[in-house]
Amino acid sequence: MNKTITFRNMSVDDLDDVMAVEVNSFTIPWSREAFFNELTKNQFAQYLVVEVDQKVVGYCGVWIIVDEAHITNIALLPEYRGMKLGEALMAKVIELAREMGAMRITLEVRVSNERAQNLYRKFGFEEGAIRKQYYTDNMEDALIMWVNLK
Ligand SMILES: CC(C)(COP(=O)(O)OP(=O)(O)OC[C@H]1O[C@@H](n2cnc3c(N)ncnc32)[C@H](O)[C@@H]1OP(=O)(O)O)[C@@H](O)C(=O)NCCC(=O)NCCS
């Protein structure tokens, strides 16, 4: 792919693009207001976007609370999936969490979302508990995954 890939912090000016990613990725998308609050009011939140030729095509968020990080979400526009951008973005977020003192990262993922689970396993995430009926659209269970950072 002979294109320029950039990773940077998300700003409120990105929210139109981020919402396009969001509504094309999730059956229960976060609202624009939710992202706005994350960026402006949540002191624990860090959000990165990935750009291809200066177009925002994906994002990932993490809350870092003392030594524990929690990935809130990761998503790419459908036409940009399967090109290793998710993996590169995840690597950046893990690096950021580590730099900010995280010793462990957790996340929740739908039990049916094998693509995302495969991505997380590549970074050493292991399966933890199940949160029953966590997703309210279809009452699907969430798998909690975690990794200890070395
Ligand atoms: C999940 C998501 C972020 C992965 O990003 P991506 O750029 O498509 O993934 P990558 O190309 O970086 O692939 C990295 C790894 O993910 C896994 N993966 C990616 N696409 C896959 C597929 N179609 N089937 C199975 N595993 C897949 C593989 O382990 C892959 O590594 P490999 O190519 O060495 O096998 C992206 O597909 C997405 O936005 N999905 C919709 C939103 C979502 O489900 N987010 C997760 C919420 S918890």
Mean pLDDT, rounded to whole units? 97
Q: Helix tally?
A: 4
Give the terminus-to-terminus CA distance. Answer: 32 Å
Hetero compounds: coenzyme A
Estimated radius of gyration: 15 Å
Could you give the order of the helices and strands?
EHHEEEHEHEE
| Main beta-sheet strand count, sense and barrel state | 7 strands, mixed
Beta-sheet strand percentage?
A: 35-45%
Note poorly predicted spans.
none
Would you count the extended β strands for me?
7
3D shape: globular
Describe the structure.
The chain is α+β, with helices and mostly antiparallel strands and about 150 residues long. Helices cover about 30% and strands about 40% of the residues. The chain has 4 helices and 7 strands. The chain has helices at about 15-25, 30-40, 85-100, 115-120; strands at about 5-10, 45-50, 55-65, 70-75, 105-110, 125-135, 140-150. It has a 7-stranded mixed beta sheet with strand order 1-2-3-4-5-7-6, with helices on both faces. The longest helix has 15 residues, at about 85-100. The mean pLDDT is about 95. The site of coenzyme A (COA) has 20 residues, from strand 4, helix 3 and helix 4. Coenzyme A binds near residues 73, 74 and 113.
